[in-house]
Amino acid sequence: MLFYESKTTIPKERHHHVRLLGTGASAPTREIGQGITVTRSGVGVYKLTFAENPGTFIRFGWGLGAATPGDVKGQTVTRDTFDTTAGVYSIEVALWSSAFAADDLQANEYMDLEFVFSEMASP
Questions:
Q1: pTM attached to this predicted model
Q2: Segment (H or E) for 105
Q3: Domain boundaries defined on the chain
Q4: pLDDT tens, position by position, for the chain (123 residues)?
Q5: Rounded to whole angstroms, how far apart are CA atoms 115 and 4?
Q6: Nearest 10 degrees: CA dihedral of 101, 105, 108, 109?
Q7: Do 37 and 29 meet the contact criterion of CB atoms below 8 Å apart?
Q8: Which residues, 6+ apart, have CB-to-CB distance to 53 below 8 Å?
């Protein structure tokens, strides 16, 4: 398999990939996401805290999956602002049902997240 260098308009771009496995009404299990801790702030709201400053926040992307894919149809994910207060680097994401209500990630449901940062202070 061959890999090629990416081209981007963001200087010194960094991608952080995270995969969460649902547990119902508790913090999901982080399966992928080096240096990231996950806690549950409320129904369907998960706080991701980075062990080190990842840089200037650029964007995030998400995807949902499940052992039975139809279990996550119609759901969506939103984010809060990236928080750097008091030297803690965190962001909250929320899962919403197709009825627009907060919804916990259930067992055998997955949330795939990608966070993009730049090493530059102001790209």
A1: 0.93
A2: none
A3: 13-116
A4: 888 888 899 999 999 999 999 999 999 999 999 999 999 999 999 999 999 999 999 999 999 999 999 999 999 999 999 999 988 999 999 999 999 999 999 999 999 999 999 998 776
A5: 21
A6: 70
A7: no
A8: 84, 89
